[in-house]
Design a protein that fits this description.
By secondary structure, the chain is α/β, with parallel strands linked by helices. The chain has 2 domains: about 5-230, Rossmann fold (3-Layer(aba) Sandwich); about 290-485, Nucleotidyltransferase, domain 5 (2-Layer Sandwich). The chain has helices at about 5-20, 40-50, 80-90, 105-120, 125-130, 155, 175-185, 205-220, 240, 255-260, 265-270, 290-295, 350-360, 380-390, 400-415, 425-430, 460-470; strands at about 55, 60-65, 65-70, 100-105, 130-135, 140, 145-150, 165-170, 195-200, 225, 310, 320-325, 335-340, 370, 395, 435-440, 440-445. The strands form 4 sheets. An 8-stranded mixed sheet has the order 5-6-7-4-8-9-3-10, with helices on both faces. The chain has a 5-stranded mixed sheet with strand order 13-12-11-14-15. The longest helix is centred in the first third of the chain and has 17 residues, at about 5-20. The protein is elongated and about 95 Å long. The N and C termini lie far apart (about 70 Å).
Length: about 500
């Protein structure tokens, strides 16, 4: 961000103050007590934009931003940085009887923030001469200005007019009332500043999510936003995406790997990746634009060559899907689909249609391997065996099986090596699929809900099973009826 000469000076004098008079008091033992140095990412993305963006009006520098939202992962020293900003403003823009507050989310965090401020003052001989540390207040003996910590309660904030206020961890705010209690008292104060500094909240509801979404989509006059975290287009397990977080040496790949192993997926996404956790119904397994690109590619399954077939669905009230998959020498996957999504008069599918498709495929020169989960389709499996003599290869939909199979499909879609032009239902089901998390095995395909009326994913599941069977048995080139020892009854 380019600053005017006056703006650069405003930011610089505060930086010089911090470097000259403050000592680092965070929980980093190696840095404790040393001169406070702004990290480059703080200086570039927080310090300079907030303190240095503005213009001269009648000989006075007027800042552009009166409010700021800073979102950073846990453990990067945001509270210590906020305290340094508050002391820099209180000392380099002194105001008689000025009011400076730090609003914390709990009594313990309020005490922690106050102790940081008090220790910074005590460690500086110069500041100790003009600022007195009391039990719940730090007061300037020359100007009468004071610094206090406050709980995030409207009743505690009404009646105050803050020259600068830090609102720490605004993700806990139930609504906008606390924030508005802070900013409403600043309207007539020149260069007043309200700074919200936080990590992501635990979901996509509430004050912080609404505010952040509005700033990202519409902007907000007089408000600056800087957010370090993953975007919605990033996968939470993509190590390349994690590099977005490495703005500071405090965050590195080893530390992130350790935290991922120690935390639940949702907590890791929130605290370490600093992204508002997506609910299952919100997190797509595959990106729509990748599926759309695959839908432009056309390729037919060569039934004279070996291929695999997946079967998924339920006996009634659901979609029943049969999907054939075959990978070409160039790595591109071809598919065929047969989908039944309308039940008959008895509320069940006409399994003779399903049997006809499977028998026709069995008679091809490719002699496909047909797989399904008997636990989900026990009636169908028994009917096919008893009435047509068709035996299917057992592929249980456990996490150990379906997580790798799901990722195989997702990876091919992401690389755009799937040809969906002839399989529109499969493409639709890929778009419908969302993430379910297995702690032991990773992600797998899931639907937003189950039963009639939900967005179906059966064709995507059948395709993933077929791809996994093809990939696992490529060298065997056997048909499901040729080797009874691998059938359901073997």
């Amino acid at each position: 961000m380019r600053l005017t000469k006056a703006g650069r000076n405003e930011a610089l004098v505060r930086e010089v103050f911090v470097r000259s008079f403050l000592r680092f008091v965070g929980n980093d033992a190696e840095s404790y007590g040393k001169p406070f140095e702004l990290e480059p990412w703080v200086k570039e993305n927080i310090w300079n934009p907030i303190f240095g963006t503005g213009r001269m009006v009648g000989g006075t520098f007027v800042r552009t931003y009166k409010r700021a939202l800073i979102g950073v992962p846990r453990g990067v020293g945001k509270t210590v940085t906020a305290c340094a900003m508050l002391l820099a403003e209180a000392n380099m823009n002194p105001v008689h009887n000025g009011q400076y507050g730090l609003v914390a989310d709990s009594e313990d965090n309020a005490r922690n923030a106050f102790d940081i401020l008090a220790t910074m003052v005590r460690l500086s001989p110069q500041l100790s001469e003009t600022w007195e540390v009391w039990k719940k207040e730090i007061r300037n003996t020359e100007t009468g200005a004071w610094i206090r910590t406050f709980p995030n309660k409207v009743s505690a904030l009404q009646g105050w007019h803050f020259n600068m206020a830090i609102c720490d961890e605004v993700h806990v705010y139930k609504d906008e009332s606390v924030w508005e209690a802070v900013v409403s008292g600043q309207g007539r104060i020149p260069n007043a500043l309200a700074l919200a500094i936080t990590t992501a909240s635990g979901g996509r509801t509430g004050f912080l999510w609404d505010w952040y979404s509005r700033i990202r989509s519409e902007g907000e006059d007089g408000c600056y936003c800087y957010w370090v975290g993953l975007d919605d287009s990033d996968r939470a397990d993509d190590r390349r995406a994690w590099r977005k977080l490495m703005v500071t040496p405090r965050i590195n790949m080893e530390q992130l790997e350790a935290q991922r192993a120690a935390m639940t997926a949702k907590s890791f996404e929130r605290y370490q990746l600093n992204r508002f956790p997506m609910e299952k119904e919100e997190e797509p397994f595959m990106r729509r634009r990748d599926v759309a690109a695959c839908s432009k590619e056309s390729r037919a399954v060569d039934r004279d060559r070996w291929f695999a077939v997946g079967l998924d669905g339920a006996v009634s009230g659901d979609t029943l899907a049969v999907v054939a998959a075959q990978q070409g020498d160039d790595g591109v996957w071809a598919f065929e689909e047969w989908v039944w999504d309308v039940t008959g008069q008895m509320g069940v599918y006409d399994l003779t249609d399903v049997a006809d498709v499977l028998e026709a495929l069995a008679r091809t020169r490719g002699r496909p391997l047909v797989v399904c989960d008997p636990a989900r389709l026990q009636f169908t499996v028994n009917w096919l065996n008893n009435n047509r003599g068709i035996e299917l290869f057992k592929m249980p939909q456990t996490g150990a099986v379906m997580c790798p199979a799901s990722e195989l499909l997702a990876s091919a879609v992401r690389r755009r090596t799937c040809a969906f032009a002839e399989t529109p239902v499969l493409a639709e089901h890929c778009v419908n699929a969302v993430c379910a998390e297995s702690k032991a095995y990773g992600r797998r395909l899931a639907s937003t809900s189950h039963g009639r009326g939900s967005e179906r994913i059966d064709a995507a599941v059948a395709a993933a099973m077929a791809m996994s069977a093809y990939d696992s048995h490529l060298q065997e080139h056997v048909g499901s009826w040729a080797v009874p020892s691998i059938s359901l009854t073997g």
